Amino acid sequence: PKVLKKPRFIKVSAIKPEQKGLNLQLKVVKLPEVVEGEKHHEVICGDDTGTVTLNLTPSQFLPCEAGQYIRLQNAKVRMKSGYINIEVDKWGKVSSAETPEAIFDVNLKNDVSAIEYELKSRGSRVSCRIM
What we know:
Elements: E1 22-34, E2 41-47, E3 50-56, E4 69-80, E5 83-87, E6 93-96, E7 117-122, E8 125-130
Parallel strand pairs: 3-5
Antiparallel strand pairs: 1-2, 1-4, 2-3, 4-5, 4-6, 7-8
């Protein structure tokens, strides 16, 4: 049998547009808000490098309570109106982190989801630029 590798967790400040396969350990800052007409909830989470907005379905945000640590595995960035949002599809996992690797205070000054990106095409290549 194949030996499974441990997930490599990254920091919020390292998140880039159109990134896939993200593994994050976050602390819930703000409880979910229901988005009108949508089937997901927006949860504000972060680590010691910044905050980010998560789009979670009702079944995914059950472990989310303000001040609690959560683990996201195999998440992806979904660009929404030029802003970064983290989404977990059927291949990803959201779970409560009973024993976080490190206890940290959330850096509220660096909101990754507040930075606007512009989609710019160069021939066949597509790149994002910070506005």
